[in-house]
Amino acid sequence: MAVKGLCLQTSYNQRENRENSSRARPYVDECVNSSPCDSANGMCENSGGSYVCSCNSGYELDGDGSACNDIDECASAPCLHGGRCADEVNSYTCTCADGYTGTRCETDIDECALEPCMHGGTCTDGVNSYTCACVLGYTGSSCETDIDECASNPCMNGGSCADEVNYFTCACVNGSIGTLCGTTECGDGTVCHNGGSCTNPGPCDCVTGFNGTMCETDIDYCSTTPCMNGGICIDEVNNFTCNCAAGYKGDTCQTVLCDLSNCQNGGTCTPFGQPCNCPPGFTGDLCENAPQGLSNGAIIVLALGIFGFVLVFLSLVCFVFVQGFRRNQAMKPMLAEAQYDYSICRNRGVYVNESLKGSRDYESIQERRYAVGQALDRLRETNALNNSVDQFLVHY
Ligand SMILES: [Ca+2]
Ligand SMILES: [Ca+2]
Ligand SMILES: [Ca+2]
Ligand SMILES: [Ca+2]
To answer: What are the disulfide bonds (predicted)?
Structure first.
């Protein structure tokens, strides 16, 4: 973009002025004299009586006709598929999201190009991923695992199993025959099927899941209709499985998942037939399990209980302390008396005049005897009395 500068003419006689001007005025290069353009990112071109500013590639002329501004090449969002754009001078660069490449991240990388699917698996390219469709006998994200067809111990009567690709073979022992070694000829004309073994006397000892004289009958474990709530029963060799109807689960479809009304504790049933969406802390298919630990209410009650216990404990301590202090105050005069009032009675013995028994004075003496004993203990603790005071004697 370019803008021309404007040169003003002031005389009414333009021809004369132009002639006079060409004769009188010197040549003026505005680009040199005043540097009106952005010399860092553009250039100035002088013309007769005027000039023109222009900008380098990647810059555009500002509205003032002189400055050159960097064009934001990211403004048009050139990076595709979530790529991040970085503006540069007259260009941009894209940092592509995983799975894409190209100047504008326009190319989905073919993750199948390196043929990641093993053992003949078919690869399907995805966004930053691939999936493999494995041939029979293999499994794993890259079909890397040979399925162990012997895992279910299909060979009967002690036959040994050899795993192959998508099949197995059984090596039979003990006279058993058949693909699974399930048939045994007993030699007396009896034949035991389905893994049954010969017995003497016969006819056959059947393995679990079969019965009949020759173990020829596969017991139908679905005959008792064990699947509940519309579940479909599938008989197996020694068991059954249930394909549950929507909204139920469990070995026998006995567990009801959510419908429009059975979610507990504020749980919601979305979507139908799945475990309820439970409030925080609640668990279980129907939100029937309360949060573990203490509820807020229980925590408050416990805190109040602890506070009350501490309050009572401190009150008791204060009471005992006050009582002790008051007793000490009361004992001071007695103690003074006791230190000088002793005689032949030992071990805190108190001499009591027999004539005082039954009187108020006698009861008072018993109380004082106790009080004096305590006072002596305190004196001993403070070394106010030496050990000889163990033999301290008091009489009244
Ligand atoms: Ca730019
Ligand atoms: Ca891809
Ligand atoms: Ca295999
Ligand atoms: Ca069965």
So the answer is: 96-105, 134-143, 172-181, 206-215, 244-253, 278-287
Q: Are residues 169 and 149 in contact, defined by beta-carbon separation less than 8 angstroms?
A: no
Integer Cα distance of 330 and 327 in angstroms: 5
User: How far, in Å, from the CA of 80 to the mean position of ligand 2?
Assistant: 14
Query: For residues 349 and 255, what is the distance between their CA atoms, to the nearest angstrom?
Result: 83
| CA 97 to ligand 1 center in whole angstroms | 22
Mean pLDDT of the chain: 82
Angle at 124 between CA 123 and CA 126, to 5 degrees: 135
How many C-beta atoms lie closer than 10 Å to residue 180's C-beta? 18
3-state secondary structure of 352: coil
Give the distance (Å) from ligand 4 centre to CA of residue 156: 16
Give all domains of the chain, ordered by start, each with its CATH number: 3-70 (2.10.25.10), 160-218 (no CATH), 321-395 (no CATH)
CA atoms in the 13 A half-sphere facing the CB of 82: 6
pLDDT confidence of 317, banded at 50, 70, 90? confident
Q: How many CB atoms lie within 10 A of CB 387?
A: 8
Dist. CA 185 → ligand 4 center (Å): 23
Strand order through the sheet with 50-55: 3-4, 50-55, 42-47
Would the pLDDT of 48 be above 70? Answer: yes
